[in-house]
Design goal:
Layout: H1 2-20, E1 21-24, H2 27-37, H3 39-60, E2 65-74, E3 80-83, E4 94-97, E5 102-115, H4 117-184, H5 190-224, E6 232-235, H6 239-242, H7 255-276, E7 281-294, E8 310-320, H8 328-394, H9 400-434
Parallel strand pairs: 1-6
Antiparallel strand pairs: 2-5, 3-4, 5-7, 7-8
Helix pairs in contact: 2-4, 3-4, 4-5, 4-7, 4-9, 5-9, 7-8, 8-9
Amino acid sequence: MFKRIAIIIGLLLLCGISDGQVVFRSLEDVWKYADTHNITIRTVKFELDKSVYAKKQSYSALLPQANATASYTDNIQLPVTILPSGLIPGMKGGPVSFGQQFAYAGGLNAQMNILNLQNCYNARMAKQTEEMNIDSLASTRKTVYQQLATQYYSYLLMQEAARLADATASVADSVYQSVNNKFREGANNEANVDIAKINLERAQQTQITSHYQMLTSRNNMKALLGLSVKDSLAIETSLEGSLKIEAVAPFAEDPALRLALWKTKINFTQYKISNSAFFPTVNVLYNYAGQRYDKTFEPFDGATGAAGWYPAQYWSLQASIPIFSSGGRFFQSKRSKINYEESMAQYENTQRQSAINDENTRLNYQKATAVLSKAENVMKLSFDNYRHVSYRYEAGLVPIDDRLNAFKDYIDYQNQYLNSLSDMLVQLYQVKIRQQSF
């Protein structure tokens, strides 16, 4: 009975662990997860949503405005007016109260802008701001993708470094044990033992570094993906599988270039807004109002003692023509024009720089790939050379110094290979990101 309960609890715990584990099999999986969970991307999405409502708010200023009014007044005590005798024929002079106790009023007021360039340009700029925020989201995604790719490939790089270090440490330990035994037999000097020990320590140092760097890279990925330190994150892919890339795929348009273009458009619209202050505005208004008075509280027409409604209505056309405002609008227009010209110059420079950056990205990737291939070949040849020297040493053809130096060279070439691999991975994700359509 207790065994069954233990099995059930164990299964439940395993299910809980599997539900909380996030597994990635490619860099694209990491990016897809970040689109939903990265806090920076989510924040920019919120800003985009707000800009949508800001656009709708600016467009609503172009629509007619209408207001309905209603009021009820209870004249608790009417004011008294002193009339002189003989002012009104047949009426004695003295104190007289005019008006009735209850007053009702209602009306409708409507207004529409026929000509208001500033509102039109404000609506245009709100739409452009929304479009710019879309590209701002794309630019933010690109930045986050770069950060994630750095940690993702750093993890794979350290995984490869750990694999090589494990093999190297095993060989270095056997070499050290062999040299140390020979030293105890009096066949080697202490300097050779120290060199063998140094080679072992260097391999073990790479083991330690790669292990902790893997943990650090994984934690950095958790932070970028909105995970906690207790959440489980696994990368189930090989380095060889992650090196595949569609080299012929064309580069997509850089979000930074689109952002620069939208900034130029918005500055041009701001220039138009500042110029619109010199143009007149024309509004049309319509007003309808009705009033009714009664001595008794009868709010609705037709009730006993109710009086009739007295309607009034009018429409008007209003124009406002700016004449002079101490030159403030003129200087604002000049400043806006300079801002537009500055942003245009920056956009043109961004275009040129983007093309150069893309070409350099292609060249750097091709260079890094070629150098990595050579570095890997050199590392393999160096290990083959070490094995040949070891065979010759075992046969008594070469001294122990040659074997130790050959192994030291292998460790050096292994580090050069890892450095070349690191550079190639950086160039790899730069190409991958430029092939993404944000």
